Amino acid sequence: MAEREQIKKSPSRRDEESVSEVEAKSESGEKLKAELDDLLDEIDDVLETNAEDFVKSYIQKGGQ
Amino acid sequence: MALPKIVGIETELGIMVRGTTEWNPVSASSLLINAYVGSEPGGLDDRSSPIAWDFIDETPGADARDFLPPEFALPPEIETHLVNAVLTNGARYYVDHAHPEISTPECRDALSIVLYDRAAELIAIDSMEQAANALPPGQEVILYKDNSDRKGNSYGTHENYLLDRSLPFGQIINGATGHFVSRQIFTGSGKVGSELPGVGANHVPYQLTQRAEHFEEEVGLETTLKRPIINTRDEPHADSQRYRRLHVIVGDANMSQVATFLKVGTSCVLFAMLEDQALERVHLLDDPVHAMHQVSHDLTLRQALPLESGGSMTALEMQFDLLAQAKDWANRFGFDAVGGDVVGEMILRRWEEVLTGLESDPESVAAQVDWVAKKRLLDGFQERHDCDWGDSRLRALDLQYHDLRPTKSLAARAGLEVIVDETDAKAARHDPPTDTRAYFRGRCLQKFAANVVAANWDSIVFDVGDDPLRRVPMLEPARGTLEHVGALIDESDTIVELLDKLGA
Fold first, then answer.
1. What's the fold here for domain B7-427?
2. Which residues of chain B have a CB within 8 Å of the CB of A10?
3. What is the ipTM of this complex?
């Protein structure tokens, strides 16, 4: 599943604290940016095509 | 000593049918649940109808403030005629108002609740697939794990905590209100825009939570209108002399497992501290309802919230102070009440990491906190497509974050950290937790489904053939576990044998 793959990609920050913090920050910053770009590509693919109709038609009766 | 904090989550799901304009949410929800129950091992295929919920002990109109006259508030109605099934994992799956709702089985700790919350998502996914088979070609039922249609209609994700009846309700109100207001900084799932009348998108383009704006009272019995921060429904589903079930209605549905873990874990710790009389500093807010909206609207997390005593604190400061007190409590009392050392230490560690991250740079917790994860997508989308907050694609993105279909879910793509094993979560669709009474309920349904006439949280009714129906009460939520009854169930070939062994 997508989530399983995601967890492998996400940096396990807490376990790698031996790396100098600054280095880790810029590295993970770049990695995050690249990941975000991939993610935005994917969102462009899967986002509901008629956004306005979709948003308008999402009406829920009240609940608890 | 604090009681074990046994917990459950009830999730009302948003529902939509695609491919037709002729649908209504109640029948779509019924179709969905029936389709799932019919496909579940031990479900409809083996029986003439799904195992029914037993309403005998439902009293949602009972008020924890027993000094109030009954006419003070309108009791919620229970709809007994709609689909209402009990699953083999001990969960309840039913139609509530106009939504499908899944209540997890009773769980012993915050990590177990994350497992069963994920199992509930998987059950919802299975249900959509099964429903597709029951619908005409081209039609599809879609479920959303969110709390608002962004048009003023809200539906809940309720947490339930087992509390000691002897803890005065006033202490619960004073101790919990500030936590429910301030924990929003890590429990919020994010929402584009505002649903408050007169609050424009230029004032609140994005906020931390879906739920905050739907709260109007500090304390009360209602859940569907004039919602209160502290809900007084007094329906323990257990021995009412010993226990209280605190019904917490303020939370958002979380897609992030870490957020669910912290939402429940920090609250378990708080309630254990209250029972141990270890909450020494209580910061009473001057206007809790207003503060709840303020916190939700404040992306800087720096808004000062006026206190009753004069002075003010930010939500972050309130959370850091609660964490500091929680550490002292843990040193004195240990973690038994919240599920043991492993889970207890994980709650404190994760809590501190998330608060520290939110304080220094919220983006650093984008894998743990839903509102941050969603905002990252929204900001990235805005930059890429050069659009402003009024763009309907951003509102679509906001909704689709919560879409439970694996092919469409944006939360599933957002890089959220996973803390429970997916294989375990798949098994948890069918198998109950081993360490609460849900084990007894689930195992009986797995092994003796044909004899179970009805079940609810605190009893099961069995048909044992010629004799009258036999009701087995389960008034102790921590009993009926694998340790207590596992061997007896294994050794019994018939329900009569089991009931004899139990002395029931």
1. Creatine Kinase; Chain A, domain 2 (3.30.590)
2. 367, 415, 417
3. 0.90
Domain boundaries, given as residue ranges, for chain B:
7-427, 438-502
- Cβ separation of A62 and B14 shorter than 8 Å? no
Looking at residue B364, what DSSP letter applies? G
Interface of B with A in 106-165 (CB under 8 A): 144, 148-151, 153-156, 158
Instruction: List chain B pLDDT tens, one digit each, 504 residues.
Output: 899 999 999 999 999 999 998 899 999 999 999 999 988 765 444 454 667 788 877 888 888 875 554 444 444 555 666 788 999 999 999 999 899 999 999 999 999 999 999 999 999 999 999 999 999 999 999 999 999 999 999 999 999 999 999 999 999 999 999 999 999 999 999 999 999 988 877 899 999 999 999 999 999 999 988 999 999 999 999 999 999 999 999 999 999 999 999 999 999 999 999 999 999 999 999 999 999 999 999 999 999 999 999 999 999 999 999 999 999 999 999 999 999 999 999 999 999 999 999 999 999 999 999 999 999 999 999 999 999 999 999 999 999 999 999 999 999 999 999 999 999 999 999 999 999 999 999 999 999 999 999 999 999 999 998 889 999 999 999 999 999 999 999 999 999 999 999 987
Q: What is the pTM of this model?
A: 0.92
Nearest residue to B490 (alpha-carbon basis) of B431, B457, B444: B444
Active site residue B435: no
Q: Domain map of chain A by residue range?
A: 19-47
Distances (CA, A) of B116 to B74, B76, B281: 32, 27, 33
Give the pair of three-digit tokens for residue B5: 């904090």
**Cα separation of B340 and A47, whole Å?**
43
Asked if B410 and A43 come within 8 Å (Cβ–Cβ), the reply is yes
**Window 485-504 of B, Cβ < 8 Å to A:** none
For chain A, the maximum distance between any two Cα atoms, rounded to a whole number of angstroms, is 52
Collect all residues with Cβ–Cβ distance below 8 Å to A51 and sequence separation of at least 6.
B391, B392, B393, B395, B396
User: Secondary structure of B319-362 in the HEC alphabet?
Assistant: HHHHHHHHHHHHHHHCCHHHCCHHHHHHHHHHHHHHHHHHHHCH
